[in-house]
Amino acid sequence: MEQTLLSKKMLLAGEWVWRESMIEVENPQNGEIIAKVPAASKDDALIAIEEGVIGAKIASNLSTYERMTILNNAANWIEERKNVFAETIALESSKTIREAQKEVKRCIQTIRLSAEEARRIKGETIPFDQMEGNENRVGYYERLPVGLIVAITPFNDPLNLVAHKLGPAIAAGNAIIIKPATVTPLSALLLAEAFEHAGLPKKILSVLTGYSSEIGNVLVTSSSVRMISFTGGNKAGNDIASKAGVKKLSMELGSNSPCIVLKDADLKEAVDSIVSGAFWAAGQNCLGVQRVYIENDIYEEFENAIVYRTNQYKVGDKMSELTDMGPLITEKEAIRVEKLVNEAIAEGAICLCGGQRKGAYYYPTILTNVDPENKISKEELFGPVVILDRVEDLNEAIEKSNNVQYGLHAGIFTKNIDLAFKAIKQMEYSGVMVNDSSDFRIDSMPFGGIKGSGIGREGVSFSIEEMTELKVVCFKIGKT
Predict the structure, then answer these.
(1) Does the pLDDT of residue 8 top 90, yes or no?
(2) Do the domain assignments include residue 448?
(3) What rounded mean pLDDT belongs to the chain?
(4) 228 shares its domain with 305
(5) Vertex 234, ends 275 and 349: CA angle to 5°?
(6) Is the residue at 120 inside a domain?
(7) Which of 15, 50, 144, 203 is close enough to 55 for a disulfide, judged by CB 3.0 to 4.6 Å?
(8) Would you name the residues annotated as active-site residues?
């Protein structure tokens, strides 16, 4: 890998800076130190906010054409260096090189979508004369930038989830401070470098590498920050919401996604889709399949097929094109997953395959006979573990699917359109994928959860809506 292309400085209001205190970035596969980045301080956060307020004014004055040009230039820069971006993702995160390559492609598309949507930020005329006495009033509303945004991103998609906040923010004319996950800062820094080369004016963007415990409160509580866009856990989201004060919030807070497999489903399609959906990025995926409800008539056939397919999944070196799954982000996370699985087994769960840990690796695991009130059934596991459960019919599957605090995505496999629509109507999820696992997503669709899975929506055009404010303009004109 061309390490010289990796910036090890952080971007503070458009300036690349070092700090005495540094954070070591590890490859989770072997613990090797691959880079050091600055540990941002509270003072750095205050500077980013102060300069970001100025940056917001600069950004709002960029024409639509200028915003589009910057975004397209950034996408071009990434595309020309897509191998460096993919290798960086794979080295610092859990993703295999094949998974990383797909993430880079999605990032490029996200940035290009942002450029396209910049031209579609529109308002509408308002018929003020609909109310008696207002016949001589005309006007409209328009969308304006919200101002300075703080974006806090997780480790599992260290490039594209940053792009999903940065691209729409620039398209809408905002300034933005990005706080990437401490364990995966390099991809975000590379993306910032792309925007610098694309001609983004200084002060509009900061990427603060550091610990949330040090700079988090400064960023989320500042009255100068007009919006927080957060992707992460439910507990952290609630903590941010309690501290943020009066500002816009957009939060994707994870899930415990179910899939339903009915007796008329294409079993091979269902098995392949669910295995991919459960074990992509070592199961560290907010859309990942965690629970599968299978009709009794096909349960044994499905169980045998998914265990066979899972045992074929290749676990190993992330940088090999032959590998299907790499390690979890840290050995600590693998130990956490191991503990939860062992607790479930101690309470009567049966492990059909996997259930083994080696360092930061936890092998793809399938459980059955899990107590529905066990933590592994109710909470977001965020690891390569899927639970199988037999049901009598769709009604029971829907009831069990809804019996969690989350509501992000769900999947159902069936050839019966009536049953599909019944599930769509009754499942308490913001997205229902028919004949796909819960893990399906494209970057232009609205994305976000209900219940404990969050507030607001991402997906480029929908993020832009979140990142803008409406202003009403009314003219009182002389009578003619």
Answers:
(1) no
(2) no
(3) 96
(4) no
(5) 45
(6) yes
(7) 203
(8) 252, 286
